[in-house]
Amino acid sequence: MVRPKRTANRLSAPLILATSLFLLTPSPAAQPSTVEVYNLRSYTHPTHTRIVIDIGKLREFSSAELKDPDRIYVDVYQARLNPILLGKTYVARCDYIKEVRIAQKNATTVRVVAELDLAKVERYQVFPLFDPFRVVIDIFPKEPPAAAPPTTPPGEQTPAVPAEKPVKLPEPTADGYSMVRQLGLGIQRVVLDPGHGGEDPGAIGKKGLKEKEVVLAVASELRTLLVAKGLEVIMTRESDIYIPLENRPVIANQQKADLFISIHANANRNRKRRGVQAFYLNFSPDPRVNEIAALENATSTKRIGEMQDTLKKIVQNSKILESRDLAYKIHGNLVKLLSQHYSAVESLGVRGGPFWVLIGGEMPSVLVEISHLSNAQEEERLKSPAYRRQVALGIYEGILEYMRSLGKG
Length: 409
Prior knowledge:
409 residues; alpha/beta; Immunoglobulin-like; Aminopeptidase; 2 domains; 6-stranded antiparallel beta sheet; 19 strands
């Protein structure tokens, strides 16, 4: 198979429709089944912006340039969107791209659109890359006019040079300085994972309140708080859809997240049991932790034959120290905040546990059990938007404390 060459489109006035079509199907004999478009990312460099559509398997695609409004689009054929990307819109960090959006155009076509300010764009090019397969859009702006040196009006003083800010040093974890702290790494992108969803309701309270509804509401509140702080937030689900447990940390890895927070509501056969708890990935000899893990892992599709590989992933997890530190900070702030507004808030502590939703994550990852739906009083509280807001605020304060411990907050 001959790989197509890169094609560059130079914009001119009046604007002319420019269409390119790449035929990349390996064999005309059989129509390929749909493949998942699993990620859309963009990077703005000093010289251009690159938009990347991650597909993974070879697919035919076409691109075109339109106006009113000015835009470039790419259609990927025999493809379907990962549910997390449905309706996604991205704001580019430059003045020549207004937004980038992705949608399922029809049952077998995914469309990516970049809205532009064509007066500021010199040219663009659309081309494929391989191993793994992806489609790239490079957009090059026109040279910006040289900025005039700043002047001081007569009679005014020259602005003072901003004072230097002292460097904040990271704090050690309970076991010393992890590699994250040694390298001075910070937090910008957080993936929030509302547990369960779709055909999997999770725990159900005596009065019918479903875990999948409660945790989605809390995650949405938490996202609002984090975005207002200037963090980028991605949710594994934004509606009542089912996502397999094993796919959730994969989404966080694909998105190159700095933190992964999975939000759940607990249940226990003893309806008097109550309280909040946080977990990080590890083995546990505690039968109560193992019972919770069994409950949360019940929808896993993995087989016994895969257990050895799974155990290796837990043993090789390099983020245990950071995950444990994050779990303690989230749990401590959650208990503190809820206790200020509600009576009889019980802390069940922080534990390591073998949770599928935490296995394979390449970033500090925690699972937070925000209350017990099996407890009548806590089910009633979880119904309340005010209680859910306080839960979100407690998790938020824990994330901020963790960021400060890295010397970045």
